[in-house]
Design goal:
Blueprint (H helix, E strand, L loop, with lengths): L2 H21 L3 H9 L5 H23 L5 H24 L2 H21 L9 H18 L3 H11 L3 H25 L5 H8 L2 H15 L4 H21 L2
Helix pairs in contact: 1-2, 1-10, 2-3, 3-8, 4-6, 4-8, 5-11, 6-7, 7-8
């Protein structure tokens, strides 16, 4: 790996998982546009899948007792199907179209978070399956299906502690589904794993600093700043040829 690409990887993983730790969302949405500066979409997704795997191992083990497991079980089928379709599109889709689709998704996410974040959830069970399917699809394609899962989990979980733990469980389910499929499709390789090992200290530092700063920062201002950055990155991805 070229030094410039390695530095982009370090920057993306640090900022992505720092933001993920501080505000609880948007890690992949922050990291992915940075990764695309120096590598293909498939390589970027491979690295993100690995670091979400590392993150899930740590977080799920800590939050296991608080996870609402029946909610996770209801999402298994939709997630497996959605992730499989998303990875298939990632493998055979046109990179330019996919990047523009990512830009559109980021802008929709910003709009959802800004205007619809108080949504109480998805009440219809059939819609819950559809949202889980599309959440899996965007998780397989861009590692960015979290907002759709939030809308599903909100319907079944009221307690915020359980909600956070259950979303961590959902992330673990997505990762457990995504990583083997990426390996089978030869999108995720041994070289990706090898390169990621050198970035783990940066990943752990980002998580540590995010936890330290979480209680000291104005969460609302931080979220607004992140949404502004996401809005800019979404526009750039849409107009960049």
């Amino acid at each position: 790996m070229a030094l410039s690409v390695f530095l982009i990887l370090i920057l993306a993983i640090f900022l992505g998982f720092f933001i993920q730790t501080v505000v609880g969302f948007a890690g992949a949405l922050v990291a992915l546009p940075i990764l695309l500066i120096g590598m293909s979409l498939q390589d970027a997704i491979a690295y993100l899948a690995l670091f979400y795997l590392y993150s899930s191992v740590i977080l799920v083990s800590k939050e296991w007792k608080n996870i609402d497991r029946p909610v996770i079980l209801k999402l298994v089928l939709a997630t497996i199907i959605g992730v499989g379709i998303g990875i298939w599109v990632l493998q055979f889709g046109k990179p330019l179209i996919l990047k523009k689709l990512l830009g559109a998704f980021i802008l929709l996410y910003v709009a959802y978070t800004t205007f619809l974040i108080k949504n109480e959830g998805v009440k219809n069970p059939k819609l819950g399956f559809v949202f889980g399917l599309f959440g899996g699809f965007f998780s397989g394609l861009f590692s960015t299906g979290g907002p759709l899962y939030v809308m599903v989990v909100k319907n079944d979980v009221v307690d915020m502690k359980v909600f956070r733990a259950t979303m961590i469980g959902v992330l673990g389910l997505i990762t457990l589904t995504r990583v083997p499929i990426l390996f089978v499709q030869d999108i995720l390789t041994v070289n990706h794993v090898y390169d990621s090992l050198f970035v783990i200290p940066v990943f752990l530092l980002a998580t540590f600093l995010g936890k330290k700063l979480y209680s000291k920062l104005n969460e609302k201002a931080m979220k607004n700043m992140v949404l502004s950055l996401l809005f800019i990155s979404g526009i750039v991805l849409l107009i960049k040829s």
